[in-house]
Amino acid sequence: MISVPDDSFYILAFSGGALLLLPVIVLLVFSIDVALDKYLYAVVILFLSSMLGVALSAKLEWMVITSADAPLFLDYRDLRNATAAVIVGTIITLGLTVELGVPTVVSASIVGIIAAIFFSSVAVPAYCGAFVGMTAPELIPTYWHALFAGGFASIVYAVSQPVFQGVGGKLGTIAFVGTTLTVVLSDGTFQSVHVPTSTIVILIVIYSIIGAVVTFAIHDYTVADAVFASGIVGLAGGVLLPILYPSTGEMMAASVFAASFAGMSDSARLPALYWLIPVGAIVGLFFVYSLPYIGGSGGKLGTIAFGSVLAVHGFLAVTGKIDINQLTQFPEQNIT
């Protein structure tokens, strides 16, 4: 790890934070539009409140960054290893889906579990790459496209390293920036999915809450790390839910996987297990009402989780339920 001059560090940190926050705000605006079309004003209020929570979290994060004693950045070796891990995770996940027909949720979960067990030092960037590899093959039709998406994600990974550490969904948001930029530059067309019936929406919210709570419990109360916990929950959802619900199981599995990213949050960000209940509920609703927009782009699930965690985290911070002293340690740590 290396120290960087204060001015350069703050510029990089601000840039990294902006790159992470922008897609969250865009997806929330799209979700509000969908909810308004369906006259679901309670959902609109929830999303508007979530935007406020995200803004509060952003303000808190800037306070954390500026008060860190010795902010550090990835050195060349860390950056090289992280970049390689992102790209390898991307290619393997995409290959499992395209060549072997493995569902994307299962593919990414397998990559995360294997990385957590056998390559723990680079499990975090490898899992980020897995989210890039979840992009629909129609949007990245060749492995060259995947390499470009992984490369873009690696850059965002490096720039955003010191900000929002310990916030679940950050890795997916990094992937989302890389994949979306690749799709836009290659003139791809994003997928759009209709909002399901109210019964399915309720089930998605319930399973999202379960996914978030179980993931957090696994990594917070056992020796398992967050990547392994998310991978296990994603694998279980990706295998079981399509069997239980043949017509909508894959959609439910995706929502559970998104919620598992929220459950990866550090206890310094979400100080108690029960806070994962509102986070999981927001993930489920955010997932549903963002379905018509930017579909098929890898990392979208993580962006949903990231925004949901920030929404709750922001209000926890202003009500004094977050220990700011714990957060100031994050910029001095290497997340890999």
Description of the structure:
This protein has a two-stranded antiparallel sheet with strand order 1-2. With 336 residues, the chain is mainly alpha-helical. Helices cover 71% and strands 1% of the residues. The chain has 13 helices and two strands; from the N terminus they run βααβααααααααααα.
Which helices and strands, and how do they pair?
Elements: E1 2-3, H1 6-37, H2 41-67, E2 72-73, H3 76-100, H4 104-118, H5 123-133, H6 143-159, H7 170-185, H8 198-221, H9 226-244, H10 249-262, H11 276-289, H12 300-318, H13 324-327
Antiparallel strand pairs: 1-2
Helix pairs in contact: 1-2, 1-6, 1-7, 1-12, 2-12, 3-4, 3-5, 3-6, 4-5, 4-9, 5-6, 5-7, 6-7, 7-12, 8-9, 8-10, 8-11, 9-10, 10-11, 10-12, 11-12
Keywords:
single chain; 336 residues; mainly alpha; two-stranded antiparallel ribbon; 13 helices; 2 strands; 1% strand; disordered C terminus
Shape: globular
Largest sheet: 2 strands, antiparallel
Secondary structure tally, helices = 13
Mean pLDDT: 91
Ranges with pLDDT <50 over ≥5 residues?
331-336
Write the element-wise H/E pattern from the N-terminal end onward: EHHEHHHHHHHHHHH
Q: Total strand count, please?
A: 2
- What's the N-to-C terminus distance? 11 Å
Strand content: under 5%
